[in-house]
Specification:
Rossmann fold; alpha/beta; 2 domains; single chain
Length: 383
């Protein structure tokens, strides 16, 4: 089976990380190709993985001719390559390209990576072309897909996440490069610098831990948009007022995040709005880090008592208490760390998740051709 993944984003975050993982783990289940609208870091990673990567003209909703040109380019690709299915990742890609896929008669799949509200213009536009199958990145996302599509078969497939390569003997050198002592307890946040990820809440919580010695905060992630630059400025201001700025390391954008995670001790991302899933949590768990986050959204399907702590929304005292205990109580911290990799494997093992995806696409194909049984694709059917 040959599948084309279509994506229009020009940043690098969870979706891009997942697509790169699919590219590196495509053997066996089916043959994946990628169609992107921007040539950058993601395209480079896909090419390095040996995945055939096609570049489409950038569509702009404000320019109908640009949209038409992009759709025609995709239709030409579909005529030339004869795919068994096209997966549009996120509402923007579906809005731009689903009509072209439907016109060519190729099975259409929508992969939802966000919490659908039905209010965004991209969602309203995407709603015009119902897919043959909707893949959701969590049960939380699946419960809200009806705001976009009614009566569309839906399946939950967690993102495939690769286990980290074992850390070499450079842990000491890596920490030294970030002005961090070997014995320090490193709290890390590795995510896009989006205010919804709770950077300010974490800064405020750590400000209340200034009396606790021996911790350092590694803030990993640069500013890809103006709102993210503003978020990082706010973090600096909070840390300065709290008197902890000397304990914060602004690491910036890195392509060696797995190494950084492996050299840390605790991962904290206290979301202030529900996240659809949370690949950053899985990556941290795979690296053996206990995770602290907010009890809402897709995070509740990831973090349990075996690997981390969920704190109530808008409860700064609970967040501070969770971090304080993990920093001070080494035995508790190591207990959660020991359960973290197994939790990541159980949820997001690449081989397993790729097989789930292959099974879902096969069932969809059988249903379309009448060769399969009448099935109702439930979220737990592919777990």
């Amino acid at each position: 089976m040959r599948v084309l993944h279509v994506y229009t984003g020009n940043l690098f975050g969870g979706i891009e990380s997942m697509l790169a993982t699919i590219a590196r783990n495509r053997a066996g289940a089916f043959d994946s190709e990628m169609a992107l609208c921007f040539d950058g870091r993601l395209a480079d990673e896909l090419r390095r993985a040996g995945t055939r990567t096609h570049l489409l003209p950038e569509p702009r909703a404000s320019r109908p001719l640009a949209v038409r040109r992009s759709r025609r380019a995709l239709m030409s690709l579909l005529r030339a390559r004869r795919f068994d299915g096209v997966i549009c990742h996120a509402a923007w890609a579906h809005a731009m390209f689903a009509p072209a896929v439907r016109r060519m008669g190729v099975p259409l799949i929508f992969w939802s990576h966000d919490v659908m509200t039905g209010r965004a213009w991209t969602e309203r536009w995407a709603r015009r072309t119902p897919p043959d199958l909707a893949i959701c990145n969590s049960d939380f996302t699946a419960a809200r897909i009806h705001t976009l599509f009614d009566r569309v078969p839906t399946v939950t497939i967690y993102a495939p996440v690769e286990p980290p390569t074992p850390l070499s003997t450079d842990r000491h050198l890596l920490r030294r490069s970030l002005d961090t002592r070997d014995e320090a307890i490193v709290i890390v946040q590795a995510s896009r610098s989006d205010p919804a990820k709770g950077h300010a809440a974490l800064a405020e919580a750590l400000g209340r831990l200034r009396d606790v010695p021996n911790w350092i905060w590694w803030q990993i992630g640069g500013a890809q948009r103006p709102v993210e630059a503003a978020c990082l400025r706010e973090v600096r201001q909070i840390a300065t007022r709290a008197g902890i700025i000397d304990r914060v390391r602004f690491v910036g954008e890195r392509d060696d995040v797995p190494r950084l995670l492996a050299a840390a001790d605790i991962h904290c991302q206290p979301n202030v709005r529900p996240d659809a899933f949370g690949i950053a949590f899985i990556e941290a768990l795979a690296a053996g880090l206990p995770v602290v986050t907010t009890a809402m959204g897709g995070a509740m399907e990831i973090v349990d008592a075996s690997c981390g702590i969920l704190v109530p929304p808008d409860d700064s005292e609970a967040l501070t208490a969770a971090l304080r205990r993990l920093v001070i109580d080494r035995a508790f911290r190591l207990s959660l760390a020991s359960g973290a990799p197994a939790r990541a494997r159980a949820l997001c093992d690449p081989k397993t998740q790729m097989q789930h995806l292959a099974d879902a696409l096969t069932r969809m194909s059988d249903s379309r051709t009448g060769a399969g049984l009448q099935i109702a694709m439930r979220a737990d059917a592919v777990r």
